[in-house]
């Protein structure tokens, strides 16, 4: 079996191919599964999050994935709009929803890419990230932040070069005081946080929030390229979160360095393959991650926004 194409988006840069064909996934019955197991214990938040992932994974194309998000935003009572963009031969649609609060408050932009590649269901990459943004939108609508208004974004065409996020920045749309990105948020014990300033206030807030929710934090600049990059390259503050196993980070970074890991990380076996299906998702852990990030953003928001906005 030939190796899969290079990683892209969360997913490693286009120049990085997976280094071991022997670890390419098989087409087992488990990999072809397209339904998630029920959430144990009746956790309503986890069940809702999982339902959003499932709705996107069930869609046959990226337009259907956006439609699933739009229907969820309607159910939440959040007004949304699309913005069409073009980039070379590509045309896509970004999706935005106003969460609140006051129009003159600094903008906190929270986003994830909604598109997927042609193989698999795109459950992990990146229905998991989009469902996390929807969960945060619901929570911040119910209990708004004190010092920031929230807009959520769902980027198109990340998988062909971060085109949706690039279009937002290039078109001169409102500069957020902070952009918070989510890409691959489906399992594991560790919040992996791309943070340009590892001593920043939001990193400290995330560390406290992660510990309070039984998770670990790995924060720093080393992180796969995804939709935070267009913001950083424009000089706009941005961070990105993933939820994975802590033991996956070293093999991913080793692959970046051109090394061959002894064993590929789970994420490298799942995304961009037939294995990217619902069976790989752990909704209970994902909700721990959602709880932790919500807690971190509320801590960050509660402090003086002028002093902490770019941290």
From TrEMBL:
It comes from Lysobacter niastensis. The keyword rRNA-binding does not apply. This is Peptidase M28 domain-containing protein. Gene3D superfamilies: Zn peptidases. Residues 94-287 form the Peptidase M28 domain. PANTHER family: METALLOPEPTIDASE M28 FAMILY MEMBER, PEPTIDASE M28 DOMAIN-CONTAINING PROTEIN. InterPro entries: M28_fam, Peptidase_M28. Residues 1-29 form the signal peptide. The lineage of its organism: Bacteria, Pseudomonadati, Pseudomonadota, Gammaproteobacteria, Lysobacterales. It comes from the Bacteria.
């Amino acid at each position: 079996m030939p190796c899969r194409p290079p990683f892209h988006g969360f997913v490693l840069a286009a120049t990085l191919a997976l280094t071991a064909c022997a670890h390419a996934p098989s087409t087992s019955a488990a990999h072809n599964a397209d339904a998630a197991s029920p959430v144990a214990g009746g956790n309503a938040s986890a069940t809702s999050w999982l339902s959003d992932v499932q709705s996107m994974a069930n869609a046959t194309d990226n337009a259907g994935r956006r439609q699933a998000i739009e229907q969820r935003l309607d159910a939440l009572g959040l007004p949304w709009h699309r913005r069409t963009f073009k980039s070379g031969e590509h045309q896509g649609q970004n999706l935005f929803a106003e969460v609140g609060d006051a129009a003159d408050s600094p903008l906190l932009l929270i986003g994830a890419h909604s598109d997927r590649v042609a193989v698999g269901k795109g459950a992990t990459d990146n229905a998991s990230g989009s469902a996390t943004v929807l969960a945060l939108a619901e929570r911040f609508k119910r209990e708004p932040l004190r010092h920031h208004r929230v807009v959520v974004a769902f980027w198109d065409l990340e998988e062909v070069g971060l085109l949706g996020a690039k279009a937002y920045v290039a078109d001169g749309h409102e500069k957020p005081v902070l952009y918070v990105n989510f890409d691959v948020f489906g399992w594991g014990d560790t919040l992996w946080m791309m943070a340009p300033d590892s001593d920043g206030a939001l990193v400290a807030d995330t560390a406290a929030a992660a510990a309070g929710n039984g998770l670990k934090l790995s924060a720093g600049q080393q992180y796969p390229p995804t939709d935070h990059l267009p913001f950083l390259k424009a000089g706009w503050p941005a961070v990105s979160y993933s939820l994975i196993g802590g033991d996956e980070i070293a093999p991913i970074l080793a692959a970046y360095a051109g090394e061959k890991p002894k064993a590929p990380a789970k994420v490298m076996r799942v995304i961009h393959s037939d294995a990217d299906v619902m069976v790989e998702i752990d909704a209970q852990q994902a909700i721990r991650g959602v709880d932790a990030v919500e807690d971190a953003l509320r801590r960050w928001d509660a402090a003086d926004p002028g002093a902490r906005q770019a941290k």
